[in-house]
Amino acid sequence: MKWFKNLKIRVKLLLGFILVSVLTLFVGILGLTNMGDLNYMLDSIYKNDTIGISFIKEANVDLVYHGRALNNFLLSSSSKDRNTYRNRLNEYEALLKQNLEKAKPLMQTDEEKQLIAKFEREWKNYKKIVKQIIEKAGLEDLMVNKESVQLAMTVGREEANLIDTLLVKLSRLQEDNGKQYYDESRVLYANSRKFMIFLLIGAVCLGLLIGFYLANYLSKKIKQVAERMQSLSGICITNLAKGSEQLANGDLNINIVTGTKLLEIDSKDEIGQLAINMNQVITNTQGTVASVEKAVKAVKEAVNEIDLLVNASVNGKLKTRGNASKFAGSYKELIEGLNNTLEAVAAPINEQSKVLEKMSAGDLTVRMSGEYKGDFLAIKSSINSLAVSFNSTLSEVTEAVQATASASAEISSSTEEMA
């Protein structure tokens, strides 16, 4: 399944929805097929079994009527009645044969076909016997017109015929109802089949549309997130790392590009939450870049201020001081420290200059009195020693001059005396 994991999300979603749609289509087709099979079975039951039963039932009724006509023939008390019932025998025989012929094609099983064939054989034997009965009855005397027989042949026969008619009517009514239900079931099947087809097509199309929509929607949003992450990693963070490295190496010519835009996703689902978190990362990174740029600006200003102090010191402008109020934190402490350093350097130099100036004016009693440390203390000691040395030398010279002057005066006086 590694190949599936490596597929894009859009392809995965489309494959999932297509699979579900195919399964839905398969289930729908299976349902339609089963509905068709069920309708075929109902159609077969009605056309073969129900209608076949109807024809067999009609044939059975014809057989009953045939037997009743035969009995009436035997009980007839006049030649007219015999002829009437003989004709009815032929009529019922024809009807029975007609219904039997209609039922034969509807017999599906071998057992049914065997029973029909056996019935036809037995029917032929029965017709031979009926023929013999009629022939023998024709040679016999007519039935004596008994009152009971007359009642059975008139009122009884009419009532029996009425009952038979009602039963036949009821049976045919049931058949008509069955046909009506059958027709309605076929219409219902046709309508249900159309509805199922439309519903199936609609469900598959809707599923595919939803699948394409969700696949495109989710893949588009995820692609946006991926592009922002790539932009953030490839541009913003990379430039930030390079800028930090430049800053660490003392290169203040830093230009950090922050071209990553925020995601414009306003949904409340997991994609929306991911977008919110991603936007927060972008915002934080941009804030970090801004902080680095601010730090670079502060370092540049501090370096410029230090360059100003260094150049002033090199040029002997020891009164120049840095503006510490422009800075904060350690940068302010650095500028103040440099100012204090210059103060410490300028103080002994200024006092040294004043002392030398007074010494040049003949005041050899002047001395450096400031409290200094280190090399400045050595310079102070040297200047003061120089002043002491100059003063001592000057005293010696003065004494020598005075001695020379005294000697000259004595020589001059002696010369005058000798003269």
In brief:
The protein is built from eight helices and no strands.
What is the beta-strand fraction?
A: under 5%
- SSE ordering: HHHHHHHH
The main β sheet shows up as:
none
Total number of domains: 2
Number of helices: 8
Inertia-based shape: rod-shaped
How many runs of DSSP E, i.e. beta strands?
0
Low-confidence stretches: none
Structural class: mainly alpha
Helix content: over 70%
Straight-line N-to-C gap = 144 Å
Mean pLDDT: 74
Structure description:
Helix 2 runs antiparallel to helix 5 (147-248). It is rod-shaped and about 235 Å long. The protein has helices at residues 2-5, 9-75, 79-103, 110-139, 147-248, 270-314, 329-360, 374-418. It has two domains: 2-222, no CATH class; 342-419. The mean pLDDT is 74. It is built from eight helices and no strands. The longest helix is centred in the middle third of the chain and has 102 residues, at 147-248. With 419 residues, the chain is mainly α. 10% of the residues are buried.
